[in-house]
Amino acid sequence: MNKNISIILSTYNESASIENTIAEIIKHIEGVEIVVVDDNSPDGTFEILKKIQYPKLKIFNRKKDKGLASAFLFGLINANGDIIGWVDSNMGSVVERFPEMISKLETSDIVLLSRYVDGGSDERNKARIIASKLINYVSRLILRSKIKDLSSGIFVMKKDVLLDTVPIATGHGEFMVEFLYNAEKKGNSILEIPYVHPVDIEGNSKSFPNLPKFLLLGFFYLLRLFQTIFRR
């Protein structure tokens, strides 16, 4: 597929992983545009980004607006690609799958890496595996979606998907569940291909640092699911 490709990264305190992730993207996707939206990381992530020498790297440092959903939308606004991808900034190890994913856009509108189709799995700690499976089960049940891994967050899509499905830029990972569901509802073809979710590079997750915060995030996921059903 002879298309311009943009990969969006959202960063907050990713100094340990951001160089490797960007290097992997450049290595595996020829001529790729990389759009990084940093939410004023105090750990020096922005300073590391400024030292990376790559002509098609766009870096934005937001000092006021913060959040995963709004960072994704901001990245979309500033991406020039006909194909747009998204991956967690600490997931450089899965970037080697992107050429395969991009090639499958010949017959699909969105290609999603999935832990819950045949061949997929999750190597994180047991608590996170259970939490992720529970979120996806409840999401599929409420939304009646056929997508197995609504919370994967690693995908490529044709930019034309945005003509009828635009992400609502509030919240954390729950915005992605809503975006994929709306894309499915609008008739876009969504292909899931298996992957193995590796152990987190920092050994933990910003979305699951402790049980109270996880329960709070779970509440917002549930609320967003019902908002998605009734939103017009």
Characterization of the model:
- This protein has one domain: Spore Coat Polysaccharide Biosynthesis Protein SpsA, Chain A, CATH 3.90.550.10.
- The protein starts with a strand and ends with a helix.
- It is built from seven helices and nine strands, in the order βαβαβαβαββαβαββα.
- The model has no long low-confidence stretch (mean pLDDT about 90).
- The protein is α/β, with parallel strands linked by helices and about 230 residues long.
- It has a seven-stranded mixed β-sheet, sandwiched between helices. Strands 6-9 form a two-stranded parallel sheet.
- The longest helix has 20 residues, at about 210-230.
Question: Helix count, per DSSP?
Answer: 7
* Helical/strand content category: alpha/beta
Enumerate the strands of the largest sheet in spatial order, edge to edge or round the barrel: 3-2-1-4-7-5-8
Please outline the major beta sheet.
Answer: 7 strands, mixed
Query: Would you identify the regions where 5 or more consecutive residues have pLDDT less than 50?
Result: none
Structurally, how many domains make up the residues? 1
Q: Can you tell me the overall shape?
A: globular
The number of strands is: 9
The rounded distance between the terminal residues' Cα atoms is 35 Å
Q: Give the name of the CATH architecture.
A: Alpha-Beta Complex
What percent of residues adopt helix (DSSP H or I)? Answer: 25-40%
CATH class: Alpha Beta
CATH topology: Spore Coat Polysaccharide Biosynthesis Protein SpsA, Chain A
The Rg value, from CA coordinates, equals: 17 Å
